[in-house]
Amino acid sequence: YPEDLKLIYEGYDNITKDKPSFNLKYRIITLKNNLKYLKIFATGRFDKNGELIKIINIVQDVTEETLIQQEATKLLDDFAVIQDSSKVVIAGYENGKYSWTSEIHNILGINKEDYSPEVNLISQFILPEDEKSFNDFMTLTYKNQDKQVIVRIKRPDGEIRYLDINNRGKFDSDKKLLKMVGFIKDITKETLVQQEATKLRDNFAVI
User: Is the N or C terminus of the chain more exposed, i.e. has fewer CB atoms within 10 Å?
Assistant: First the structure.
């Protein structure tokens, strides 16, 4: 790639005794028309007068890891879009601390800075009628490592949201819980639509 070649030449031109090396990633097209990513590490050798004697180059093929990194970045970007559009949260619990992807703060209507990692955010806003179901849901055992529950939370602005939560535990060889990973989906819209449809159906049945 001409633009990459230009950067390599600039790297060579800028080698000095005070800054004797550079490294960068560049692209090439092989004779079979395949795209390759290479990484070059170049370092200069100087005489006692500070004059450049030679440049040693080490070139590494980093195509595979570069493509993997690009795919991972794309997946993260795609997941961010999915999360924003479907209101999905990934949650974790390990060593006494909770972790949440950013959508949880939008769902609950809160600021991240207002709560410490030791706080289970869902439990702070759950309706009293759903507390028992949620507490049972959070109690995982070696024989019952997966659970699912639908609960309601009340946001600080008074809005009620419906959450569909799946939870899975990971245990050690002594059957002790190491961590939990959960998926939380805001199903408020579809739940309200379903409730309205049921109400209309019941009213029609009466008529």
Answer: C
